[in-house]
Amino acid sequence: MNKTIIINISGVIFHIEEDAYELLKSYMDDIKKHFGNYKDSFEIVSDIESRVAEMLSEMLLAENKQVIVIADVASIIQRMGKASDFERMEDEQYAADFATERKPAKKLFRDTEDRFVGGVCAGIAHYFDVAPKWMRLAFVLMFIFYGFGFLIYGILWLVMPRAITRAEKMEMKGEKINLLSFQKNFEDEINAVTTNFKNVGSSVPLLGKIASFIRDLTDSLLRFVGTTGRAAVKVIGVLLVIILGIFLTIAFVLLMVFLGYAGNADIATIFPLNIINEPLRPIIFICTFLVAVIPLISLIFLLLRLIFNNQVAPKNTYLLLACVWVLAVATGIFFAAKIATNFKQEASYSETLNLKSNPSKTYILRLGDERTMQENVYGDSLGNHTVTISGNDRDFDTPNDLRFELKVAEGNLPILSKTYTAKGSNFESALRNAHKIEYYYHQNDSVLTFDSQFGLKNASLWRGQEVAIKLKVPLNSTLLIEKRIAERFFWYELNDCIDENAKDDTLIKVKATANGFICNKTQEAIENQREYNRENGITDSLATTLIF
Predict the structure, then answer these.
(1) Strand residues in 324-382 grouped as ranges (E)
(2) Which end of the chain has fewer CB atoms surrounding its CB within 10 Å, N or C?
């Protein structure tokens, strides 16, 4: 059992055994005695004490213990060196070995003692062992020719720490941190300060004044940021935390709503939720929630840490959040790939219907106002009848690929064909999905009314359903196409025949000929064609009809 005492080294409290304390005290007394004749002996000894405190803290943390023992002190003395080593420097061979000894890896710091603005260029120059003037020239050229030199300098200024202690300055230059290096670094610093003072004060006084002004201005700005600016940053941080907290609350409420409706048939009409199979919806909802909110939670923790300058969550919390986020992403990708297998195969089937003939061969095409209209039923006991179903359950912009095509029939009867296409995990499931499509039209004498969209039976899932409508009319038939249905299905073919200023129920006259369908161009289309011909030197006669 050993006696333990409490000591204070460079403002850090340590528990140390008595024999280790005696050895450490003797070591520090030798150092103070050796540097006692130096003008700045207090600064040198303070830097050495700071380095010793840093090394002791690293040892305690690495070995997960609380008390310093004599072996720890002996290890530090061996690494730092003894005051007696200065006497050995008089030996030429030892001095040569010391000079050629392998230097440790450098660390990137800002050198504020050899700075023009913030010390970024000087710090980078030390790291890559080049002259600071070349780094400054490189940043000036980037600012002049590329425009982003200022941005890069600002980012590096924020990222790179400032070399404050003598140990950090030595690490910046790649020097070993021991007593000999401390003395050498101090002597080099004194010589450099003297030389720079002479150069700036005598040879280039104007440059010295400019550099001094820039440094003073920079220091004033930094002091402002450190007081008023810090308060403003905290206020902004609090506001961001409140906003992010509101977003988290909204996301949680939405998750609860979606989980509550996960098995409800109504949710099947919402795109893109109507892509997801019902058993997979809760998993997808939870994964989406985690992927979205975990970055927000991490950002809140970071802001709170910056605001209160304290760790608000255990260190393992961030690692746990990262693991959960990666797991949520991986799970979401897995089930997304599983859902994608429902789009592997494609299948289709067609229906062909003979429409009611019209002696005048005139047919009016209109767009239905209701959601669906049951088509005519012929030959049953009730006779011809029509059932109209109002309402619309295809909201939320579900993809609705509906195409309409006009053709000239070979016979004297109008023919309507409907082709239904869908996708599935295999051909059979794709065909079943195609049979779940419902599309309605209605014929009342010469009036053919078509629904603008198709629907899915029993709130079925969306599986890339498509509907192709093909209307064949006899030769020399006349079609009166309502403007609404022309704009919905035939905009490309009839764009020059559609008057944009006309009402929606305006009818556009189209004639079925052996060469195709023809319609009369609007006056605006004719004027546009005339202007185009005049600008391009075309002398051909204007076409007043459009053939498609």
Answers:
(1) 345-354, 362-367, 372-373
(2) N
Quote the crossing angle between the two packed helices 132-141 and 149-159, to the nearest 10°.
Answer: 130
pLDDT in tens, 206-230: 545 555 555 565 556 655 555 565 6
Alpha carbons 492 and 495: distance in angstroms, whole number = 6
Residue type, position 325, single letter: W
467 contact partners, CB below 8 Å, separation of at least 6 = 401, 402, 403, 418, 419, 420, 421, 437, 439, 454
| Beta carbons within 8 Å of 463's beta carbon, 6+ residues apart | 342, 343, 422, 423, 424, 430, 433
Residue 455 CA to residue 459 CA, distance in Å, equals: 9
DSSP 105: P
Nearest to 55 by CA among 36, 81, 32, 29: 81
Question: What would you measure as the largest C-alpha separation in the chain, in angstroms?
Answer: 124
* 297: CB partners within 8 A, 6+ apart: 248, 321
Can you point out the beta strands (E) in 35-114?
A: 67-68
Which residue from 88, 91, 109, 110 is spatially nearest to 178, judged by alpha carbons?
88
pLDDT in tens, 409-424: 888 889 999 999 999 9
Residue pLDDT, tens place only, 428-471: 999 998 998 888 888 888 888 988 888 888 778 888 889 999 99
